[in-house]
Design goal:
With 514 residues, the chain is an alpha/beta fold. It is 32% helix and 17% strand. Strands 6, 7, 8, 9, 11, 12, 13 and 14 form an 8-stranded parallel sheet that branches. Strands 2-3-1-4-10 form a 5-stranded antiparallel sheet. The chain is elongated and about 75 Å long.
Length: 514
């Protein structure tokens, strides 16, 4: 390539490169531990979690098992791999061990020194944040469709879903509805099937459900015995514009139900960590966790890191204890922590805030009816009543549990545009949020779906332009080498035409781009 060519193309490359201004920004959290008197102490399960290096060989596992048996001596204990206890999930190298209480400290001390043991800790439980709800709706709300730039679904109770208007969904639905994206909901399960005494939630009739797992009962049927997971899933991908009930943020996304909490809304760290890894290994793009507690888990953090490395964004509720610190897992690294606001965009009275908070989303306040629609200002979705799989209603609930799935749904919309890096998706969620002032209380602000999709469109367009220009340059170099006598304008014209044609193709058809 001669100097003249470089002189012509150099500024073009610089201009297009400048357009691609979405840097991959890894959030740096203040992960320092707070004194124990500021934490909620999570209930221990009586077991120890042993997380062995993912690529550890069978011989390495056997050596760890032998060390463990020696630590438990003089108690009679297996010396083979059975010494590690029960493996949680397939190929996770995560084990739940129930050792004699008197030997637990010896086990912890012995295994913490082993280079093949990534984490060893006393397992504790996380649970649903405290929440409350109101049942039933008075009747259909008026639906007004008078703006060609807005899509208002025909779901009769959509008029009560102030929370979807608050994040700009009518405009966002004109751009994208989440097709091709899988959202794993790590929760109490899902009312997803009509079989063996279980029933699918009526307003999930058109929602795509992909294979999940029950880490409470260790089977492939993650049925909801509570209602929380079904409510959360509805906010993400409720069947929309089907003339029934209510709408969801990303109605064309698929839900992967992963049950880690029992009928009482409680579950161990081991099942949660295994569920995160399962989601990453089985095609999830987004993980939502509307659960938590006051203490951090090494095993869960490792699972989150694993998901992040596999291109999955993890989103979690900040907690409902009205305290100035975010709870776990939302406080862990590589997690988007979501607080809650009510109709007037003020922080909900129960929402946690402070260190670690990233964004806020609608969580509601059932004490008030600020919009005057005759309904308490909760987040309305279709779910089980009292955990009964034969009884469903449209329930208005409040909590950061309800806020988090709004953010997960918007993340799904961003992924659906072709933005596949979790750090970039998080950056777009934050950059597009409405700044509400006090970052300590609101983080980057209130999520805005339409603005996020605008940013995503700009980012993918700039990336497409760079890729197209690169292809054109390579083609021009090839043409010049093949025919040195060809004129620069002629070879450039062929390159631009060919590269432009590639730029118009769907990205999924272009290897390494889609």
């Amino acid at each position: 390539m001669n100097k003249r060519t470089l002189f012509i193309l150099g500024p073009i490359v610089a201009i297009v490169g400048a357009l691609f201004y979405f840097s991959v920004a890894v959030r740096v959290d203040d992960s320092s531990e707070l004194p124990m008197d500021t934490l909620s102490v999570d209930t221990p399960t009586g077991a120890i979690l042993v997380d062995i290096e993912d690529d550890a060989s069978a011989e390495d596992q056997q050596r760890v098992a032998t060390e463990l048996a020696q630590a438990i001596a003089p108690f009679d204990w297996p010396t083979n791999q059975d010494a590690l206890g029960a493996e949680i999930g397939d190929s996770a190298n995560l084990f739940r061990l129930v050792a004699p209480p008197s030997e637990m400290n010896d086990v912890l001390e012995a295994l913490r020194a082993d280079p093949d043991v990534e984490a060893v800790e006393i397992e504790r439980t996380w649970s649903l944040p405290e929440w409350s709800g109101a049942s039933g709706v008075a009747g259909a709300a008026p639906i007004v469709q008078d703006d060609p730039d807005r899509f208002v679904p025909n779901d009769p109770y959509y008029g009560y879903q102030w929370h979807l208007d608050q994040i700009g969904m009518p405009e966002a639905w004109m751009r994208n509805r989440g097709a091709g994206v899988v959202v794993a909901v790590i929760d109490t399960g899902l009312a997803y099937r009509d079989d063996a005494g279980w029933n699918r939630a009526p307003d999930l009739a058109d929602t795509t459900i992909v294979g999940g797992y029950d880490f409470v009962n260790n089977d492939a049927e993650p049925d909801d015995e509570h209602g929380h997971g079904t409510h959360v899933s509805g906010t993400i991908a409720q069947s929309t514009n089907n003339g029934l009930g209510v709408a969801g943020v990303a109605p064309e996304a698929s839900i992967m139900p992963l049950k880690v909490l029992d009928a009482n809304g409680s579950g161990g760290w081991g099942g949660i960590a295994a569920a995160i890894r399962y989601a990453a290994d089985n095609g999830a793009n987004v993980i939502n966790m509307s659960l938590g507690g006051g203490m951090s888990s090494q095993a869960v953090q490792r699972a989150i890191d694993y998901a992040h490395e596999h291109g999955v964004i993890v989103i979690a509720a900040a907690g409902n204890s009205a305290r100035g610190r975010v709870e776990y897992p939302a406080r862990h690294d590589h997690v988007v922590a979501v607080g809650a606001v009510r109709y007037d965009r003020d922080l909900s009275f129960y929402s946690n805030y402070g260190t670690g908070l990233d964004v806020v989303a609608p969580g509601g306040d059932l004490r008030v009816d600020q919009n005057g629609d005759g309904m308490p200002d909760g987040v309305l979705q279709n779910t089980l009543v009292g955990g009964n799989p034969n009884r469903f209603d449209y329930l208005a609930w409040q909590g950061t549990s309800m806020a988090s799935p709004h953010a997960a749904g918007v993340a799904a919309l961003i992924y659906s545009t072709g933005v596949l890096d979790p750090d970039t998706v998080e950056q777009m969620l934050k950059q597009s949020a409405d700044d509400l002032g006090d970052a300590n209380r609101f983080g980057s602000g209130l999520i805005q779906a339409n603005h996020a999709l605008q940013l995503a469109s700009q980012g993918t367009s700039a990336a497409r332009g760079i890729a197209t220009l690169g292809l054109a340059l390579l083609l021009m170099i090839g043409l010049r080498r093949r025919s040195p006598m060809a004129s620069l304008p002629a070879s450039s014209a062929w390159a631009v035409a060919f590269g432009g044609g590639l730029g118009l193709l769907p990205w999924a058809l272009i290897p390494l781009v889609g």
